[in-house]
């Protein structure tokens, strides 16, 4: 799942860390859930 999100995010924008957060938050909103995404490098 992580790899799928990374591929989608990287292909969509120049700043993949921000887009990963956006994708996850959008998915959570659809299910009426709140999420916090922390990117560790």
Quick overview:
The protein is mainly alpha-helical.
Task: Describe the protein.
This protein has 41 residues and is an all-alpha fold. It has one domain (1-41). Helix content is 63%, strand content 0%. It is built from two helices and no strands. The chain has helices at 2-12, 16-30. The longest helix is centred in the middle third of the chain and has 15 residues, at 16-30. The chain is globular, with a radius of gyration of 10 Å. The mean pLDDT is 79.
For the termini, the CA-CA separation is 18 Å
* Main sheet summary: none
Helix content, binned percent: 55-70%
Structural class: mainly alpha
Mean pLDDT over the full residue set: 79
Proportion of strand residues? under 5%
Provide the succession of SSEs: HH
From the alpha-carbon coordinates, what is the Rg to the nearest angstrom? 10 Å
Low-pLDDT windows of residues: none
Shape: globular
Number-wise, the strands total: 0
How many domains, in number, for the residues? Answer: 1
